[in-house]
Amino acid sequence: MKKLVLIILVGLGLIIEINAQERYIFTQHYVNPILINPGATGFSNAHNLLFNYRNKWAGFPGSPKTFAFSYDGLIMDKAGLGLFLMKDQFGSLEVLKGQLSYAYHLMGDNYKLGLGFTTEYLHYRAKSLLSGPAEFVENDPFLEDRQLGDKFFDFTFGAHGSYGDKIIFDLVLPGMIRTKLESQGDNQDTSRNFNFIVGLGYKYKFPGYDFEITPSLFIKKLNKVPFHVEGNVLMSFYQGQLMGGVSYAYGADDRLGAMLGTGLNKFKFFYSYNVSLNNFQSYNNGAHEITIAFIIPKT
Predict the structure, then answer these.
(1) Which of 115, 180, 191, 292 has the fewest CB atoms within 10 Å, i.e. the most exposed one?
(2) What's the pTM value of the predicted model, to 2 decimals?
(3) How, if at all, do strands 46-55 and 150-163 pair?
(4) CATH of the domain at 93
């Protein structure tokens, strides 16, 4: 039985490595770019508070659940500062993330560009001890090591901009510097994989109607996540008071999703539902994601 438990823990350790790029988790980044792009820090010229919750594979025991909180705003005329906290739990696995983001804005007559970077702290660990028969040894060194987990420092660069109030573009380079903390000799993580997220969108306003449509495309190559492409269409009515969207991802996790949102005064709410096109979808109820945002105008 003990060997079986150890095998399970080894397998869970591999899952931690597979999900090492946290920016793959979120699906509402095309309406809230701050979820993945430090270049969007302070871009809206306001103070923004954002709460995000995602439950992937709902109804399946131990399904991944993610909680995130974000703040970003202008601290100077052209400089933004942000804070991002995240907790992701998958069965007995837990990922904790703390992030500070900084951005500087370049502005012209027809364009605005935010250039930013993040300093990140990540902690991967097994959250609780597994139970077993009478001979189960809870203080086994292997189990204790999984309890302590691995800690990393990460650095990410991002650019977020708009041109002519129509074209929107994103560039994110995650994990440019990822260093394992509290590690000696051969355990030091020196891998340097080139990761990127590239996004492009176009806003089109229908003349004579209070209706706007924004198709966008994101191409992603992330560490230990297969190359994939996301297509999104966002529709906005009544000056953004009512929003709807559809998305499709091909590659890492073939999925189809729909989103509804509303924006009233200083409050925004988004809900999206995604289904996987893979066989595992028959064992769960799909993925649910909720974002609640509060906007505090700059004084």
Answers:
(1) 191
(2) 0.84
(3) unpaired
(4) 2.40.160.40
Report the run of H or E that residue 144 belongs to, with start and end: helix 141-148
Neighbouring-strand partners of residue 177? 155
Tokens linked to 230: 């996301």
Within a 13 Å sphere around the CA of 200, how many CA atoms are in the beta-carbon half? 2
Residues in the chain, total = 299
Reported as a single tens digit per residue, the pLDDT across 50-83 is 999 999 999 998 899 999 999 999 988 899 999 9
Nearest to 29 by CA among 185, 211, 158, 155: 158
Joined tokens for residue 78:
């052209």
Q: How are beta strands 167-180 and 204-205 bridged, if at all?
A: unpaired
Expressed in angstroms, the distance from the first to the final Cα of the chain is: 63
84 touches 68 (CB < 8 A): yes
Task: Dump the DSSP string for 2-19.
Answer: HHHHHHHHHHHHHHHHHT
Structurally, how many domains does the chain consist of?
1
The closest alpha carbon to 249, from 228, 270, 280, 235, belongs to: 228
Which structural domain, as residue segments, surrounds residue 60?
Answer: 2-297
Compute the C-alpha angle 155/101/32, nearest 5°.
110
